[in-house]
Write a structure and sequence with these properties.
heterodimer; A: 464 residues; alpha/beta; Aconitase, domain 3; Aconitase, Domain 2; 3 domains; four-stranded parallel β-sheet; 16 helices; 32% helix; globular; B: 196 residues; seven-stranded mixed β-sheet; 8 helices
């Protein structure tokens, strides 16, 4: 038999039908939905006189719009409130399980799926959100879809998809101290650009990847969309099984043993061929920070913004436009630059490990007086864990306050907006113009980089 | 059966946007994603580039320049990167565009526009440069798009480019078919698949 990749194995097992010269009909195991990209899909479905085909394979949570303080009160902003109410009504009508604001399992959709054990190896998972790639950390095919496709999944539990090309990114060796998977992600995107992965599905492999925790793997797979890839995945292993065991929706008893035996087969065969392959040395990766307006515009914290000397035409114009927006000059060093805001959270870095790293770094230190910090857990369960582990006390004595779960300042659909012209070191995933509020200047980094910036008030190296 | 608008031939002038990596947050910022109905998104297309902070139109932005018009949007490479928000495709369509030309498209955006009767045409860098130059010389320069023959023609230069499109999606656009009707026709097969 021809050697196949992990991606091939899962994809091929989910093809219901293939259109000659066209896309495949791919069966979807789990469909996550939220309040922003689902309402038009529900109304489209209903205008056809249909109901959701497999509501029990669907899970809903409101996350994009929700406030991160006083969640027990009605949402003040009318349009946000209406979107959340619409989701609630749609889920009731179509019998879809929903973890609303008051539910103990509420949180960002890409945080709660894994922490409840809904996300499992070998599955196909979609959501009307590009960061669905997060779930690939479990050895699943998970990718973001548009609202028309959400409607397709509602109607048929299937989606029409052309099979993407395959890419493998190997990271070998040992990561340096205080270098995290966020740094791997920003390093890789800086190397292959924001469109380097377009048309591909990535498998991350190599010894540095194997040594990552599940939380760290999720951060990396989450960011795979930022190099243009449909998704990223990591073959399941003992780390994966240990994370899943005992979680709410994970198989139990004999079913667990049987599943683990199946999951162990989910790996790329030796000699399987990828369309594109890269190998990086973990030792070359340092704490990263972005200076521009796409996630590929990143450098090591000790590095400088490129001079742009090698660029011409629209490449140069785009580079200069980006620096102008950020208020930076070509060739400048970033270290030591004053910052105004710090955001810890999002589906990229809103898990317990991220808050442990943050708390561990700031312990015994004080927040810089001019910095506003928003510390936003990814879910109620993460919030609970932060409290149980005593991290809140550490944060509070350093001058930080813990907020409530939601997407928050990652995309600023709620009130958590970075003001115009202000610099934010953010653990989220996108530094696009206006992403964190009109005129906001975002610098993407790891929770440790954000912690270092929060206490020093300037871009700092967390290794020092 | 729900029909989407059929795509036929288009002859039109074009609106140039020679910026690379235009992400979906630029096409439509997140704060305009709060509607629960699909309408009126064209008003907020390129919102933060199109309007100044006080809400008045930014005269430097191409959509506010009356020299440029037409149903074809021509953009720099890697157009539509970032979020999966279909609102981006809706806003481009709702504004009145029917074709988007670039030398490279982000995957999700490309899928989204195809599902909304909007044709993404990926051309070579040189053909794209030719288009930008022709529009710069003459803002009324016209281009012809023929989906049947998969051809885009730059009438000023007399150059043509044959573009790729998935044959299934081509058929859908030409006939105004929609994917859900097709998927519903497979219900039996899907149920059999689930039993496996």
């Amino acid at each position: 038999m021809e050697p196949t990749t992990l991606f091939d194995k899962i994809w091929d097992a989910h093809v219901v039908n293939k259109i000659e010269g066209g896309p495949s009909v791919l069966y979807i195991d789990r469909h996550f939905i939220h309040e922003v990209t689902s309402p038009v899909a529900f109304s489209g479905l209903e205008s056809r006189g249909l109901t959701v085909f497999r509501p029990q394979n669907t899970v809903a949570t409101p996350d994009h719009n929700v406030p991160t303080i006083e969640q027990h009160l009605p949402i003040r902003e009318e349009l946000s409130r209406k979107q959340v109410e619409t989701l609630t009504a749609n889920c009731e009508r179509h019998k879809i399980p929903m973890f609303g604001l008051s539910h103990k399992w509420h949180g960002i959709v890409h945080i709660i799926g894994p922490e409840l054990g809904i996300t499992q190896p070998g599955m196909t998972i979609v959501c009307g959100d590009s960061h669905t790639s997060t779930h690939g950390a479990f050895g699943a095919i998970a990718f973001g879809i548009g609202t028309s496709e959400v409607e397709m999944v509602f109607a048929s539990q299937c989606i029409l998809q052309p099979k993407p090309k395959k890419m493998r990114i190997n990271v070998e060796g040992k990561l340096g101290k205080n270098v995290t998977s966020k740094d791997i992600a920003l390093y890789v995107i800086a190397k292959i650009t924001t469109s380097g992965g377009t048309g591909h599905f990535i498998e991350f492999a190599g010894s540095a990847i194997r040594s990552l925790s599940m939380e760290a793997r999720m951060t990396l797979c989450n960011m795979s969309i930022e190099c243009g890839a449909r998704g990223g995945m990591i073959a399941p292993d003992e780390t994966t099984f240990a994370y899943l065991k005992g979680r709410e929706e994970a198989p139990k008893g004999a079913a667990w043993d049987q599943k683990v035996a199946e999951w162990k087969k989910l790996k790329t065969d030796e000699n399987a061929v990828f369309d594109t392959e890269y190998t990086f040395d973990a030792a070359d990766i340092t704490p990263m920070i972005t200076y521009g307006t796409n996630p590929g515009m990143g450098v090591g914290v000790e590095g400088s913004i490129p001079t742009g000397d090698d660029l011409t035409g629209s490449d140069l114009a785009t580079f200069l436009k980006s620096l102008e927006y950020m208020g930076f000059k070509p060739g400048e060093k970033l270290k030591g630059k004053k910052i105004d805001y710090v955001f810890i959270g999002s589906c990229t870095n809103g898990r317990i490990e991220d808050f442990r790293q943050f708390a561990n770094y700031i312990k015994g230190k004080k927040k810089a007086s001019w910095v506003t910090a928003w510390i936003v857990p990814g879910s109620k369960q993460v919030e609970q864990q932060i409290r149980e582990e005593g991290l809140v006390e550490i944060m509070e004595s350093a001058g930080f306050a813990l907020r409530q779960p939601g997407c928050s300042a990652c995309l600023a659909m709620n009130d958590d907006k970075i003001p115009e012209g202000k610099y934010a070191v953010s653990t989220s995933n996108r530094n696009f113009e206006g992403r964190q509020g009109p005129g906001a200047r975002t610098m993407l980094a790891s929770p440790l980089m954000a912690a270092a910036a929060a206490v020093s008030g300037v871009i700092s190296d967390p290794r020092e | 059966m729900i029909m989407i608008e059929k795509f036929t031939k288009i002859v039109s002038s074009a609106v140039p946007l020679p910026i690379e990596n235009v992400d979906t947050d630029q096409i439509i910022p997140a704060r305009f994603l709060k509607a629960v109905e699909r309408k009126g998104f064209g008003e907020n297309l390129f919102r933060d580039w199109r309007y100044r902070k006080d809400g008045t139109p930014n005269p430097d932005f191409v959509l506010n320049n009356s020299k440029y018009s037409g149903t074809i949007l021509v953009a720099g490479k890697n157009f539509g990167s970032g979020s999966s928000r279909e609102h981006a495709a809706w806003s481009v369509y709702d504004f009145g565009f029917r074709v988007v030309v670039s030398s490279f498209f982000a995957d999700i955006f490309k899928g989204n526009v195809l599902n909304n009767g909007l044709l993404p045409i990926q051309v070579s860098e040189s053909f794209l440069t030719g288009m930008f130059e022709s529009i710069e010389k003459n803002p009324s320069a016209t281009f012809e798009v023929d989906l049947e023959t998969q051809t885009i023609r730059n009438n000023s230069l007399g150059t043509e480019f044959i573009f790729d499109i998935n044959p299934y999606k081509k058929e859908c656009l030409l006939k105004g078919y929609d994917d859900i009707d097709y998927l519903l026709s497979l219900k039996k097969e899907i149920e059999v698949f689930e039993m496996k």
